[in-house]
C-alpha cells in the first residue's frame, strides 16, 4: 500500500535506546503486518535480554537529571509532547489502524485519549505534595514527601497500542521516573512514533527507551528480574501477569497489573431497553470485541429476553466490517489468524455444548484473513466454557436470569473483576447491585466511562493498582518519611 508522507515520517524501523535509534545486537528483525490484509508494513529489531539490559542502564543513568527537574519543567515537556501528538493525530491514527486494524474513527479516538492522558499528567506533575505530620510525643519535627520510584518498565498490549503508552509513560515521567517500554510484538509502530514525538518535545536521552521483540518472554524476564528496575506496569492477560508477578518477587518490585476481564452486562426488566441495546452494541463490539472491558456475558431478565434479542440483532445489522482505513467502516479485523482460530473454536465448542447460534458464527474470508462475523449465541449456560472465558472477539453470549439475586450471583461467578455494567431505572437497585458487584469499575446505564479522570483497574485476578485519575501518578511514587530531632 502507498503510505502518505506525513505517516511515513513517523514510521520508525529501529528501537530506541539512550536517545539513539538502534538495531538489535543480534542483527535479527521481525515483520509487522497489517491484520486486514496480512501485508507486511515494515520490520523492526528483534531484541533480547542484552538489549533490554542496555536500555535499563540508559534509563538508570538518565534518572538523576530527570528527577532533579522541577515539576513545572517536566510538565512543560509533557505539554509539548501532548501538543505534538495532537498535531500528528491523523498520522498516528493511520499508523495505529495499519498495524492494529481498528476502524480509523476508533483510532482517532484512541490517539485523542492519549493526548488527554499526557495533558492530565502534565498537570498532575505539579500537584504531587507531601504532608507535615503532627509532632510526636518527644517533640520531633516529622514530614513525608513523595519521591519518584526510579526506573519503570512498561509492557503494553496490542489492542490499544497508543493510549496504553500514554497512560503508563505520562504519569511515570510526570513523577520524575525514567522508562523502558516493551510494546506488543504485533503493534510496535505506535510506540516508536510516540517516542519520536516525545523526543521532539524535548524528553532527554535515556528518559524513554523502547525495546522491540517478537516474543515478550526474554525481555519480560529481564525487566522483571533486573534489580535496577523499581516498578513494572503491565497490561495484558492474567496468565502472563501471574508470570510477571512471580518473576518480580525476587526483587520485590512495585507492580501495576491491568489484566483480563469477564465483564457482565446486566439488563433488568425496568431498564430503558433501547438504551441498553445501544450500550450492549457499543461495549461488546468496541475494537471488534478485543478489549478487557468488553461486555463478555450479557445477562438479560427473562421477561425482556426475546425483545432485547430482536432489537439487538436489528442494531448489529447497521455495523460495517472491513478494512479500517476505509471511512465507511465501523469495525476492523481481529489482530491475527491465531485470534480467529480461538474465536472459531470457542463458537464451535459452545454450540457443541448446547448453545444456539442466533446470528453469525463464521469467518469472513471475502473481507480478509482475520475477519469474523458479529455473532450472537443464545441458550448459553454457566457450565459452558464460554462462561469462564475472556472472549476477546465479536461474540455476544446471552444468558437469561430471573431475579436480581441470581443476576448478581452469575455476574460475580468468575475470578475476574475488572469492569461491569447494569441497566435499570430503579434507584434503589442501582445502589444495591453496584455495591454487590465484585468489580473495580461499574457502569450504570452507560457503557463508556473510561477517561483520563477515571481510576482504571480491577480487583481479584483482574489486577493490582489503578491507572489514570489523580491516583495514577501515585503508582510511580514512594513515600519518604523524615524525622528531625528538635
Automatic annotation (TrEMBL):
Gene3D superfamilies: Aldehyde Dehydrogenase, Chain A, domain 1, Aldehyde Dehydrogenase, Chain A, domain 2. Residues 21-481 form the Aldehyde dehydrogenase domain. GO terms for biological process: gamma-aminobutyric acid catabolic process. Transmembrane segments: none annotated. Its EC number is 1.2.1.16. Pfam families: Aldedh. Keywords: NADP, Oxidoreductase. Signal peptide: none annotated. One of its GO terms (molecular function) is succinate-semialdehyde dehydrogenase (NAD+) activity. InterPro entries: Ald_DH/histidinol_DH, Ald_DH_C, Ald_DH_CS_CYS, Ald_DH_CS_GLU, Ald_DH_N, Aldehyde_DH_dom, Aldehyde_DH_Superfamily, Succ_semiAld_DH. The active site is at 258. It comes from the Bacteria. CDD domains: ALDH_F5_SSADH_GabD. NCBIfam families: SSADH. Belongs to the aldehyde dehydrogenase family. This is Succinate-semialdehyde dehydrogenase (NADP(+)). The lineage of its organism: Bacteria, Pseudomonadati, Pseudomonadota, Gammaproteobacteria, Pseudomonadales. The gene is gabD.
Amino acid at each position: 500500500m502507498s503510505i502518505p508522507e506525513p505517516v511515513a515520517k513517523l514510521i520508525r524501523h529501529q528501537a530506541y535506546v539512550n536517545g539513539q535509534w538502534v538495531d538489535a545486537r543480534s542483527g535479527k528483525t521481525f515483520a509487522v503486518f497489517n491484520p486486514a490484509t496480512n501485508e507486511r508494513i515494515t520490520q523492526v529489531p528483534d531484541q533480547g535480554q542484552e538489549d533490554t539490559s542496555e536500555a535499563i542502564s540508559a534509563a538508570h543513568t538518565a534518572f538523576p537529571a530527570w528527577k532533579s527537574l522541577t515539576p513545572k519543567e517536566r510538565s512543560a515537556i509533557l505539554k509539548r509532547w501532548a501538543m505534538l501528538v495532537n498535531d500528528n493525530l491523523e498520522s498516528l491514527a493511520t499508523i495505529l489502524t495499519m498495524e492494529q486494524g481498528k476502524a480509523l474513527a476508533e483510532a482517532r479516538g484512541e490517539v485523542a485519549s492519549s493526548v488527554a492522558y499526557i495533558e492530565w499528567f502534565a498537570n498532575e506533575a505539579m500537584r504531587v505534595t507531601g504532608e507535615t505530620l503532627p509532632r510526636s510525643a518527644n517533640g520531633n519535627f516529622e514530614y513525608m514527601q513523595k519521591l519518584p520510584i526510579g526506573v519503570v518498565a512498561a509492557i503494553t498490549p496490542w489492542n490499544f497500542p497508543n493510549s496504553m503508552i500514554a497512560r503508563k509513560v505520562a504519569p511515570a515521567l510526570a513523577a520524575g521516573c525514567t522508562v523502558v517500554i516493551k510494546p506488543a510484538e504485533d503493534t510496535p509502530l505506535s510506540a516508536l512514533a510516540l517516542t519520536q514525538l516525545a523526543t521532539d518535545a524535548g524528553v532527554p536521552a535515556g528518559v524513554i527507551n523502547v525495546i522491540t521483540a517478537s516474543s515478550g518472554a526474554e525481555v519480560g524476564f529481564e525487566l522483571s528480574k533486573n534489580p535496577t528496575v523499581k516498578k513494572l506496569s503491565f497490561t495484558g492477560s492474567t496468565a502472563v501477569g501471574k508470570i510477571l508477578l512471580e518473576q518480580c518477587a525476587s526483587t520485590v518490585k512495585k507492580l501495576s497489573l491491568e489484566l483480563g476481564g469477564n465483564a457482565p452486562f446486566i439488563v433488568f426488566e425496568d431498564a430503558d431497553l433501547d438504551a441498553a441495546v445501544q450500550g450492549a452494541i457499543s461495549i461488546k463490539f468496541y475494537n471488534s470485541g478485543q478489549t478487557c472491558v468488553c461486555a463478555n456475558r450479557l445477562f438479560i431478565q427473562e421477561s425482556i429476553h426475546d425483545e432485547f434479542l430482536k432489537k439487538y440483532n436489528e442494531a448489529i445489522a447497521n455495523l460495517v466490517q472491513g478494512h479500517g482505513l476505509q471511512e465507511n467502516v465501523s469495525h476492523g479485523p481481529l489482530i491475527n489468524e491465531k485470534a480467529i482460530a480461538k474465536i472459531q473454536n470457542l463458537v464451535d465448542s459452545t454450540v457443541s455444548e448446547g448453545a444456539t447460534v442466533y446470528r453469525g458464527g463464521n469467518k469472513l474470508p471475502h473481507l480478509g484473513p482475520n475477519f469474523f462475523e458479529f455473532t450472537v449465541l443464545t441458550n448459553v449456560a454457566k457450565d459452558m466454557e464460554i462462561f469462564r472465558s475472556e472472549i476477546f472477539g465479536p461474540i455476544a453470549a446471552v444468558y437469561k436470569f430471573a431475579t436480581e439475586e441470581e443476576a448478581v450471583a452469575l455476574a460475580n461467578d468468575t475470578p475476574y473483576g475488572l469492569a461491569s455494567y447494569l441497566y435499570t431505572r430503579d434507584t434503589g437497585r442501582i445502589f444495591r447491585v453496584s455495591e454487590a458487584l465484585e468489580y473495580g469499575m461499574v457502569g450504570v446505564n452507560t457503557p463508556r466511562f473510561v477517561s483520563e479522570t477515571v481510576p482504571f483497574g480491577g480487583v481479584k485476578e483482574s489486577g493490582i493498582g489503578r491507572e489514570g485519575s489523580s491516583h495514577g501518578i501515585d503508582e510511580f511514587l514512594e513515600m519518604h518519611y523524615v524525622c528531625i530531632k528538635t
